[in-house]
Amino acid sequence: MTIHLKHGRLIDPVSGKDETVDILIRDGRIEKLGGQITSEKSAQDLDLKGKIVAPGFIDMHVHLREPGFEHKETIETGCASAAAGGFTAVCCMPNTNPVIDDESVVRYVIERGRRVCDGIVDVYPIAAATRGRKGEELAPMAELVGAGAVGFSDDGSPISSAEIMRRAFEYSSMYKRPVIQHAEEETLTQGGVMHEGFVSTRLGMPGIPGVAEEIMVQRDVALLKFIRTARYHVAHISTKEALACVRAAKKEGLHVTCEVTPHHFTLTDEAVSEFDTNTKMNPPLRTKDDLLAMKEGLRDGTIVAIATDHAPHTIDEKEVEYAAAPFGIVGLETAIGLAYTELVDAKYLSLFQLIEKLSTNPRRILSLAPIRIQEGEKANLTFLDPSIEWTVDTASFRSKSKNSPFQGRRLKGKAVGIYNNSKFFATSSL
Amino acid sequence: MKLQNRHLLGLDGMSKEDISAILDTAVLFKEVLERPIKKVPPLQGKTIVNLFFESSTRTRISFELAERRLSADVVTFSTAGSSVSKGETLKDTARNIEAMKIDMVVIRHPAPGASHFLSRVVDANVINAGDGGHEHPTQGLLDMFTLRDKYGRLENLKVCIVGDITHSRVARSNIYGLTTMGAEVSVCGPATLIPRDIEKLGVKVFHRLEDVVQDVDVINVLRIQLERQESGLFPSLREYHRYFGVTKEKVSKASKPITIMHPGPINRDVELSADLADSEHSVILQQVTNGVAVRMAVLYLLGTSN
Q1: What local confidence, expressed as pLDDT, does residue B83 receive?
Q2: Residues of chain A with pLDDT > 90: what percent?
Q3: Where in the sequence is the domain holding B59, given as residue range(s)?
Q4: Are the Cβ atoms of B91 and A323 closer than 8 angstroms?
Q5: Subunit contact B195:A200, Cβ cutoff 8 A
Q6: Is residue B232 part of a domain?
Q7: Same domain membership, residue A347 and residue A414
Q8: Which residues contact B37 (CB under 8 A, 6 or more apart)?
Q9: What is the pLDDT of residues A188-197, one digit of tens each?
Q10: pTM of the predicted structure, to 2 decimals
Q11: Are residues A149 and A23 part of one domain?
């Protein structure tokens, strides 16, 4: 299939380009790229006037739930959700059943990813750092990387033992893959269901104090100073203090990165006031101060990646009293709209920076080859329409689950299509 | 008279007018309770179900009495200690209530927000009879009724709530209601049992009873749970009693008599000394009596406004 992309605004952080171009893609490769390309009869024309062509987006923090929890999401529905949300790649977390702590499971997940949705979305597994995510002994990291894992994490739980974290840093450093920490000092968070602060006091709900995140990041940074060859990535950072700690560690030249979720730069713990279980996630929604710190961290470059922590749960699982509900919300199909509305439209980030944080930077963190938008290269692209205003409707989600606190929210900016692995997907907005 | 909300989920955000309306109505029902025949007909033909997912004796009996004295048909359902997972029970129960055409539901549940959840999924009026550490609005109302009865006002009345504020729904409902009505509220307890940022609710925080007694009209003593000691929140009941137990000796240092309240059940000589609980300054039994009148008022106002 040949596609002729016309009049799109190419924004490519890798080459530094920001210009209106035509792109001719034949059999998955960029054949021509230029100001204006003469039409070909056999090509499918796609008018991208007013739209943005970016290197394919990757969500480096997704729970695809397969194997084991297919009632919440499958690799197929998760990839469909990713495509609809504008992502050409996702990294899936290992808290499945069985846990992704063995090369056979890594291979299974990658293989399923190739078979579903025409293989348009690349699925990169994050393997468990420890066997069974139990935090007791290292997972077979070399074998896991060999099978295709791109990082290590016990996400959902922290790597609590300092000794195990030290060894995970040492061992993973041989393969230049990050240890991704769910930063939570669990002795401080037992029974907690929301951020501990004024709102939890008002609602009488057990709290998860922000200091639990800060302490874990502090400890990990101390270990990283000891093992300087390791790569440390803080998942879903949510507190001002933990962010300050990352900022200081970066200044020291340590290999530290972090990501933030759209909900942590959009909502605060005030959203919990009506006991809507779709506001329950871990880390919890924090304070206005923390939210502003996240935006500042994105602006000053301390936060290099935006990732959703897409965590599907069924309606039955979420339609319970707050304390009984599982943590987590879906995010793939609202991420771009939220990021554009809250960050670009609100002048925190340029489009260029936004694209870095959704594509270039996360790929670099995971040692994935950069996407080159040049003649002769494989086409891996996301198309955005920055002018669309739309209303979130969870019923239209491709994800199997609808647990979003953003139902009914007005957003500006949307991913309207993707191209990857010789496949083209367009939403109804394209 | 009609309240702004068709449910009573909490006193947080309830207007002064609504609180006054309930307290004024309760005055009428208190008079009814002093008659030889204590039954009136306003809720005849209405069906009320009391759902108690947590053990309770006095609140349950108080609600049942209030409902029966208003001539409602009453069903009480207790599942304390049930092995069924809480989430399933509540949702399934809600569906059953819908199916059985119940008019009003009174719910006590260990999870904060449980009554909010219920109010979203059923048509019936929902009354919160205690949701975890969140609110216990009828207790807050009966406490205010008792104080208004005694002092003739709530405005500028100085009330200190003593004990485990963090886990107390009674404390929260009292704080919301009393501050709305213009009372001056303070809390006193060990630092481990005072929740973060509580000052932002408009209350002063104390850690020494001695600092409190000089300046208050009322002390509302909360029950201390032994399990809080087990989870490391205070060192021992002995130490608790010594420093935070409200005793005649500590209260005697005040220049004026202090009214003693307690939501019950009392751990005698732990959070409150027995002699003080039984003294002439204690209004603990009046609280119980007034509880029925206040609950009648709430049921009446919600049940007759549809």
Answers
A1: 46
A2: 97
A3: 16-135+288-303
A4: no
A5: yes
A6: yes
A7: no
A8: none
A9: 999 999 999 9
A10: 0.95
A11: no
DSSP classification of residue A273 = G
Which pLDDT value is given to residue A377? 98
* Total count of domains within chain A: 2
Q: At what angle do helices B16-33 and B137-151 cross, to 10 degrees?
A: 70
B chain contacts of residue A198, beta-carbon cutoff 8 Å: 196-197, 200
- Cα separation of A13 and A19, whole Å? 12
Active-site positions of A? 309
SS3 content of chain A, % helix, strand, coil (to 5): 35, 25, 40
Q: Is A300 exposed, middle or buried, given 0-12, 13-18 or 19+ CB atoms closer than 10 A?
A: exposed
CB distance A329 to A281 below 8 Å = yes
Q: From the list B132, B196, B200, which residue is nearest A196 (CB)?
A: B196
Dihedral Cα A189, A92, A278, A320, nearest 10 deg: -80
Range in A334-348, B70-84, B128-142, B167-181 with the lowest mean pLDDT: B70-84
A275 interaction partners in chain B (CB closer than 8 Å)? 112-113, 116-117
Least confident of A171-175, B75-79, B178-182: B75-79
Contacts of A26 (CB under 8 A, 6+ apart): A1, A2
Give the domain CATH number at B44.
Answer: 3.40.50.1370
C-beta separation of B125 from B306 below 8 A: yes
Chain A residue numbers with beta carbons less than 8 Å from the beta carbon of B131 are: 204
Q: Tell me, what's the ipTM?
A: 0.94
